[in-house]
Amino acid sequence: MRLGLFFPKKTTNFNKAAASHWIRVLQMEKYYKELGIEVYINKPFKTYDFAIFFRKPKPKYYRFMQYLRFISRNIYFDTCINIFDEHEEINSKRLEAAHKIAAICDGIICASDKIADKAAPHAKSVFVMDDPVDFEHFNKVKEKINFDNPIFGWSGVPHKAIYLNKYKEVIDGRTRLITKDYVKDVPLEFKYEFIDWDYNSFPEALLKCDIGFLPRDIDEAYNSGHSSHKALVFASLGIPVIANKIPSYVKLAGYYNGIVFLEDFNDDVEACINELKKRDPDISRLKDYYSCENQASRMLDYLTSRIRCCS
């Protein structure tokens, strides 16, 4: 089987790639190859059994999907966001492109079940590939958690940290923000330590935190479909997590007992911490499901089933 993976920015450098590209493409390459798949990244002058284009719907990417139709037996669009409702990432032009892309491709691959629910009415086929973790890279477990005076950890795009202000009295002076760029022009109302995001040192940066603190507005259309990755990277190292009930985080909780939700404790962070003290943050079930190996195997099963279905 020959698989072509395509995304807009031509790089294989994890530090220069968009998060969804290194999560869903770059770190997956070797695991697809271990299954005997011939894999190429951003090589448009070959022919493929399957071609997958990643991330956002734009008119120019629809035109590229039309080209992939000529060089591949089956084509798919992979999305880490809900592309069928307008929100901060999807305007009317992108929404129109999303419908055209859904019509031309053989299926849409989604980073969460919530995204899949939105895509299902518009797609020929839908498959959920949860964001995977490379446990050869995330290969340690937090040995001791300081619940009495925890360091809260948060990682993401700098401007998203603004939502942490809601909890400024609790997290002030004991928070680490791990981001790609310094948190400038973001009016944060609490003291924090900045850690520059780097793929190679990312696990070590996370291990400097006692609790992943990931509040988010779940009523917003963009946030509600978010993948589990923000919480998953903490959980994969055995670090407890406090978050809101994003559907993908609720799914993660089925594999990892070390996550609690603010909604269940009346938005009381201290109550969440007291509950986490009672939990066993064992990662064995999480590791079985969210590993790159398992997600690659699931993807292969889906693709081969579709080629039989569509042949």
Provide structural commentary.
This protein has 2 domains: 2-132 and 292-310, Glycogen Phosphorylase B (Rossmann fold, 3-Layer(aba) Sandwich); 152-289, Glycogen Phosphorylase B (Rossmann fold). 35% of the residues lie in helices and 17% in strands. Helix 3 runs parallel beside helix 4 (92-104). It has 311 residues and is of the alpha/beta class. The chain has 13 helices and 12 strands. Strands 2-1-3-4-5-6 form a 6-stranded parallel β-sheet, sandwiched between helices. Strands 9-8-7-10-11-12 form a 6-stranded parallel β-sheet, with helices on both faces.
CATH topology of the largest domain: Rossmann fold
- Rg, nearest Å: 20 Å
What is the H/E order? Answer: EHHEEHEHEHEEHEEHEHHEHEHHH
* Spatial sequence of strands, sheet with the most strands: 2-1-3-4-5-6
Proportion of beta-strand residues: 15-25%
**CATH architecture field of the largest domain:** 3-Layer(aba) Sandwich
Question: What attributes characterize this protein structure?
Answer:
single chain; 311 residues; alpha/beta; Rossmann fold; 2 domains; 6-stranded parallel beta sheet; 13 helices; globular
Could you provide a short overview of the structure?
Helix content is 35%, strand content 17%. With 311 residues, it is α/β, with parallel strands linked by helices.
Question: What's the SSE blueprint?
Answer:
Elements: E1 2-6, H1 19-26, H2 29-34, E2 38-41, E3 48-54, H3 59-71, E4 72-79, H4 92-104, E5 107-110, H5 113-119, E6 126-128, E7 152-155, H6 168-171, E8 175-179, E9 193-196, H7 202-207, E10 211-214, H8 221-224, H9 229-235, E11 241-243, H10 247-253, E12 259-261, H11 269-276, H12 284-290, H13 292-310
Parallel strand pairs: 1-2, 1-3, 3-4, 4-5, 5-6, 7-8, 7-10, 8-9, 10-11, 11-12
Helix pairs in contact: 3-4
